[in-house]
Design brief:
46% helix; alpha/beta
Length: 119
C-alpha cells in the first residue's frame, strides 16, 4: 500500500481463492479497515473471492462486503449478482494483473516495480 501511495496509483486487493470460506468476511473487512486506517488517502478496491459457494457470497454481502468474486453455476451467479446490486455491491469478474508478495525479499520494491509497470 505504501508503494501505491508513493505512485498515487489506485490499488485493487483481491483475496486468495476461496478466502470467504477459510478466512471469512469479518477477517477480510478487518484487514481492509486496518489498511485503510494506515493509508487513508489511498483509493482501494477490495474483492473477496467466494469460490463457487453462493451461500458464502450471500454471507459476505450480509456482512457488508461490497465486491465479491463467485464462480460456478451461472444461474446462482446471476441471482447473487441481483442481490449484490440491490445492496449496493457487485460481482467482480474482471481479470487483474496480480502480484503475490509471499516470499519476496523486498516487497516494497517489488510492489513499486509492479505498479509502475516494470514487471
Amino acid at each position: 500500500m505504501r508503494a501505491a501511495e508513493a505512485l498515487r496509483a489506485p490499488l485493487t486487493l483481491l483475496s486468495g481463492a476461496g478466502a470467504a470460506g477459510y478466512a471469512g468476511p469479518a477477517w477480510f473487512e478487518e484487514v481492509l479497515r486496518q489498511a485503510r486506517a494506515r493509508h487513508p488517502k489511498l483509493g482501494v478496491t477490495a474483492i473477496l473471492d467466494c469460490a463457487d459457494a453462493p451461500g458464502r457470497a450471500l454471507g459476505a454481502l450480509r456482512s457488508g462486503v461490497k465486491r465479491i468474486r463467485l464462480a460456478g453455476n451461472a444461474r446462482a451467479r446471476a441471482r447473487v449478482g441481483e442481490i449484490a446490486k440491490a445492496r449496493g455491491a457487485a460481482l467482480d469478474d474482471a481479470r487483474y494483473a496480480t502480484l503475490d508478495l509471499a516470499g519476496s525479499k523486498d516487497p516494497e520494491r517489488a510492489a513499486l516495480q509492479f505498479l509502475a509497470g516494470k514487471r
